[in-house]
């Protein structure tokens, strides 16, 4: 393979009509969505004067809503289409974020849950569109770019919220977050990307199979591994903070997280350029194995070195999960499947921090990395065993994922 082939592969993906503007609009909306928890935290703590625990309850309500609403919205998109469903999510986001600064705390908790239920499904729609707009050979590189955009949003979104919340006000920042979410949803609605490929819009492919026909053992295996990698990553973030706090260097946490994110961007680009995929269970297992010893880093510079390995494997693992979901599910249920994927990841992120937090409380900060890694390792092993025992509902597209 020549050195220009990886670049050519990404150029081919970006040359797909409509894909570049879709990724750009998705990046705007996802940056705001990744910052929504921080925006709500700042409003509750600074504007309303409540505790961080109270802010956590608001964020938990939002997260629970997103997890429950994802599959429902995906199913609605499968049945009714994108332009019918998106307005149902855009209008509530506009109303919610406009009112956030003036809502009483109790009302804010309930409203956050409803806003989560009706969150604009930017990530799920983007992944469906990528599946429909690209060929099988282009898809992994396209999902790598989508994963890289996600890493950039996580690096930028919360930092921007903190900066402007301290220089302006949390209320103004919440309006900005809401405006970006609404603008992203409206942009996707106007772009109206295809969610099914041309060959999937007629005949049997356009039908909606029953859930038991497609939600088989292998789909469950992939969703479980998606849950596992999210739980691992959520735990790693907490373990980084705990490690540096234990060393009296908590101010360096942002730098360590940024190093991990930058390494993930590099890993995603490298993986997207590879000629052949790597099994999901293997990548997740490797990610878990490099996570476990990271807590042994004696100083923050060594911790930066340790998280490089975690970062390099993060985006590739996320890409393989996304790619597997797209390949395993028929077109008629792809929206519901991507919604389930988002819910599994959301549940993993929600569970990772408390589980790792308990491990840190009963041991040390190094125990946090160990707990996060062991959770990922368990998910990888279980996913592998389920994958080997299951049968493929869509055998031809996923043949390359079974190579060991």
Automatic annotation (TrEMBL):
One of its GO terms (molecular function) is transmembrane transporter activity. The keyword Membrane applies. The keyword Transmembrane helix applies. SUPFAM superfamilies: MFS general substrate transporter (SSF103473). Keywords: Membrane, Transmembrane, Transmembrane helix. It comes from the Bacteria. The chain crosses the membrane at residues 12-33, 53-74, 105-122, 219-244, 250-274, 281-300, 306-325, 337-360, 366-387. InterPro entries: MFS (IPR011701), MFS_trans_sf (IPR036259). Pfam families: MFS_1 (PF07690). This is Putative MFS family arabinose efflux permease.
